[in-house]
Amino acid sequence: MAAAVAMCIQPAAYADKTEADKWINNGFQPSTLTKKQQSSEMVWFIKAAAPFKGMEISVLSETIPTYEYESRVLTKAFEEITGINVPDYPKLAQIWWQQIGDVNSGVFTPQQAMDRLESEMDTVIVRTQSADEKAKVNEKPQGETIGYDELINR
After folding, report:
1. How many helices (H) and strands (E) does the chain have?
2. If DSSP states are collapsed to H, E and C, what string results for 38-69?
3. What per-residue string of b and e applies to 97-132 under the rule 16 or more CB within 10 Å gives b?
4. Cα–Cα distance list, 108 to 95, 105, 113 (Å)
């Protein structure tokens, strides 16, 4: 699988063994590993990820059925278990394949294509994050649920 990875500091939810156990019991079954073996693996993941908690990893992957499962299920599990945020930027795959095509056709050298890829990915991520921030500004505040008696007495 082709992948380009960039990391930047972003707030993320922190997880622990409780989240891992939830996934072992409900998300990763059936499995060829026993639950005890899975638990040992999760402890390793949590420890290995500890220095990176709160960071964001942007991943670019091929659009194949395996990736669809990874982005829908495994990414959520990874975020909850490790506390590392992995946003999905589907637009980045298009940029990747454009660069591959340009190299294959001889328009650019591999180095030129990678330089262009880096620049274009940065542009897309900045635009996406900017759009997310604008959307948050326009969000309505969450409503308040109040009891019937309190509503009548207002």
Report:
1. 7, 2
2. HHHHHHHHHHHHHHHCCEEEEECCCCCHHHHH
3. eebeebbeeeebeeeebeeebeebbeebbeeeeeee
4. 14, 8, 6
The token duo for 61 is 């992957």
Kind and range of the H or E element at 8? strand 5-9
How does DSSP classify residue 139? P
Burial bucket for residue 9 (CB in 10 Å: 0-12, 13-18, 19+): exposed
Distances from the Cα of 37 to the Cα of 21, 43, 69, 147, angstroms = 12, 10, 22, 48
Contact 76/86 with Cβ under 8 angstroms? Answer: no
Which helix (H) or strand (E) is 5 found in, with range?
strand 5-9
> Is omega for the bond preceding 30 within 30 degrees of 0, making it cis?
yes
**Mind listing the pLDDT tens digit of every residue in the chain (154 residues)?**
334 443 333 333 345 788 889 999 988 888 899 999 999 988 888 888 888 888 877 666 666 777 777 777 888 888 888 888 877 666 677 787 888 888 889 999 989 988 888 888 888 878 877 776 665 655 556 666 666 677 677 6
Strand partners of residue 57: 7
